[in-house]
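Researcher: Here's the sequence for the chain we discussed earlier.
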Amino acid sequence: MSVRLLGTGAADGWPQAFCRCASCGAERAAGRVRGQTAALLDGTVLLDCGPSTPEAATRAGVDLAGVRLLLVTHQHSDHLSPAALMHRGWVTAAPLTVAGPPDAIAAARAWLPEDAPVTWLPVAPGERHHLVGYDVRVLAAAHTTGLGAADAAEAILWDVTTPDGTRVLHATDTGPLPATTVAAARDAAYDVVLLEETFGDRGDLAGEQHLGLAAFAEQVRRLREVGAVTDTTDVVAVHLSHHNPPTPELARRLAAVGARVVDDGTELVPGTVTPRPGGRTLVLGGARSGKSVEAERLVAGEPRVAYVATSGRRDGDAEWAERVALHVERRPAHWRTVETLDLVALLTADVPDEALLVDCLTLWLTGVIDRYGAWEPSAPDHAAAWSAVETEVAALLDAWRGTSRRVVAVSNEVGQGIVPATASGRLFRDAMGRLNAAVAAATEDVRWCVAGRVVTL
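Model: Thanks. This is the structure I predict for it:
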């Protein structure tokens, strides 16, 4: 079984020829060029065929002479080039089946003579066909073209099982997957999932017609939840545009949800997987460095997440209440929120498939110091109070070292600014530094956030 990605780009490619943005500049400098998304199965089945697809096949060192089935997702020009079908007809009379939405079929058919050796197959979501030895299921897409009839699907997705049993989901273009599609994919255990990711962090552009990185992660989670994506599924992002970060950063971001990005022309080998990060992760950074956002991204693909808020509520503090509200608003609905300082109980609990996101250790330490009134070094009872704080820190470290859960913790780096003017401020700075160092020493994955950029330590 062979899956060759002839193109991985959006309609205008990446880098975009008319654009000088940083993303396009980085890709040009690296010599990476992504053309319109299309895939070739076994040299026989072509998933979409835009204007650049024939040339992409040539650059990849393959030809399309053996193609007997073209599966079209929709009529948009980067997915269907009727001219390519006409050019094919100039050199071969081999039979070809073209399947797709009714309006796409009508648009392509107009380019070929009536006696062309082509079987035209208009399809609709929910249908299943056996075509040139392949089992083909038609799934609904969240995408419209404005080019079809009001009572017919204008865009679809393809679920293809090859003669050897390999199963591929071709899911572009689409916004958040319709519930019917997720239900139809239950227990599919796909070998390969080609899932669109057009708009990177530009959620304002993605809307309901395309996916950005956050929505991509959510679709992977939904597919994982129903057994469509498993630990052996190769999830590959396609339909990529320059609204994404440069490829190295994109690859890092996708890896957090068990997905990857590949170059045009790559041949996928079923069984190749990108494992999701496991174990313990500590995310450090200063104020507004992007550390909480990074931590949230790391668990975005997890089926279950417990968000551990260590800040508590502050009655009468309107500014703090607004901060909390903003955090709550951006959390996915399926996450559960736990407001507590008892991290030991959570780290030692056996809760299958539920990741922990602790935000943050800084406020946890603040709360523990508050609990024992240990802020003032000159207080008569400070030694006893601070001993109680250290006991709690030691218990946390023991639980952190021993936990079997997937856990991501956020913490502030407070020691790189000015020296605090008060004794209590210096006490906290030093204690926070020691806690961060101790947790990092017992952590597989430590990340440092600066100006929204992430460095692995």
